Amino acid sequence: MTKKIIGIIGCGAIGSALAEYASKNMTGSLERIIFFDIDPDKATSLMKKVAISETASSKKEVIDRAHLVIETATKKIVPELLKTIIEKKKDLIVLSIGGLLGCEDLIEEARKKNIRIILPSGAISGIDALKASKIAGLESVTLTTRKAPKSIKGAPYLEENGIDVDALTEETVVFEGNAREAMEGFPKNVNVSALLSIAGLGAEKTKVKIVISPDYTKNIHEIEIISKAGSVTTKVQNIPSPSNPKTSYLAALAAITALENYFDSIRIGT
Ligand SMILES: NC(=O)c1ccc[n+]([C@@H]2O[C@H](COP(=O)([O-])OP(=O)(O)OC[C@H]3O[C@@H](n4cnc5c(N)ncnc54)[C@H](O)[C@@H]3O)[C@@H](O)[C@H]2O)c1
If you measure from the C-alpha of residue 10 to the centroid of ligand 1, how many angstroms do you get, rounded to a whole number? Predict the structure, then answer.
């Protein structure tokens, strides 16, 4: 296989973990890693830590030069990025999956044009079972997310509804609704609900509940899938990333695994 150039847009918790791992463990597949961050200092300081890397001055430069672009920035840039990726016939791994809600037509266009768009499992388990269950017929998909106050602070829904998570003294349900509403209210916290929507019943029908407690030390995601093939329940208890408590460590590891799969001809799991 010819070595590939990968571009990482967003040099925070996930982008950094991915780049540091890839530069040490995927040298057989990688020619170069190109970084872009809206904050140039972040891209430069990551470049200094990572071999075979350099920085770019724009997203456009990253897309022009890379074979595979990895988005680890913010959901806001995803629709435009997806459009450009399709136009330039590049491959894309998306982590800010909430940004793909409403982009169903573009995803279909990518599929028709044979453009590879990869959505890692992120901070959850069970996407394999969800996809398989969908073939039999899904009846319901429910996500219950439990987080500590520091892992959810600043979310627009909390501010709009005057909820001070630091004042909570016990386990409290702060949100119940569908995945579209969850992604609007908690754009940085429940990307997993968008992933479940895209893989399953869509954002209107995927149910989401968010529970906060000062006693939680992990980001916990429980998923219940009911289908004509039976029922599946999964629970992951994630250690938050040290550099970004909103992000689970497992999400960075899932991004690494997605990149390993990209280079591997053997596919394990559905
Ligand atoms: N799929 C999942 O399960 C999952 C899990 C956790 C986080 N996420 C999402 O992945 C993304 C990255 O997460 P993270 O923990 O690394 O976040 P982070 O905040 O640690 O890093 C994000 C980086 O992107 C940069 N950035 C912001 N806007 C940008 C823009 N317009 N262009 C270029 N760079 C920009 C920031 O400066 C920052 O360095 C977030 O959108 C997050 O919500 C997804």
Answer: 6
| pLDDT per position as a tens digit, 208-218 | 999 999 999 99
- How confident is the model at residue 98, as a pLDDT? 95
Query: Is the CB–ligand 1 distance for residue 74 below 6 Å?
Result: yes
Atom of ligand 1 nearest to the CA of 73: 24
Residue 257 shares a structural domain with residue 219 = no
The rounded Å distance from CA 251 to ligand 1 centre is 11
From the DSSP assignment, how many helices (H) and strands (E) are in the chain?
A: 10, 13
User: In the chain, where do the E strands start and end?
Assistant: 4-9, 30-36, 53-55, 68-71, 91-94, 117-118, 138-147, 172-178, 207-212, 219-227, 230-238, 240-241, 244-248
Domain that holds residue 132: 127-238
Mutational test site, ligand 1, from 38, 74, 223, 253, max ligand atoms within 8 Å of CB: 74
Statement to judge: residues 138 and 51 lie in one domain: no
β-strands 53-55, 30-36: how paired?
Answer: parallel
| CA gap 82, 153 in Å, rounded | 29
Instruction: Tell whether 90 and 51 lie within a shared domain.
Output: yes
Ligand 1 atom, smallest distance to 188 CA: 43
| 22 CB near ligand 1 (under 6 Å) | no
Q: Are residues 87 and 113 in the same domain?
A: yes
- Range 194-214 average pLDDT: 97
Number of structural domains, the chain?
2
270 within a domain of the structure (yes/no): no
List the CATH number of the domain containing 136. 3.30.360.10
| Residue 243 falls inside a structural domain | no
Report, as residue numbers or ranges, the catalytic residues.
Answer: 221
Pick the residue whose CA is nearest to atom 32 on ligand 1. Answer: 38
DSSP annotation of 246? E
pLDDT digits (tens, 9 = 90+) for 94-127: 999 999 999 999 999 999 999 999 999 999 999 9
Q: Residue 245: which pLDDT band, with cuts at 50, 70 and 90?
A: confident
87 vs 247, residue with greater confidence: 87
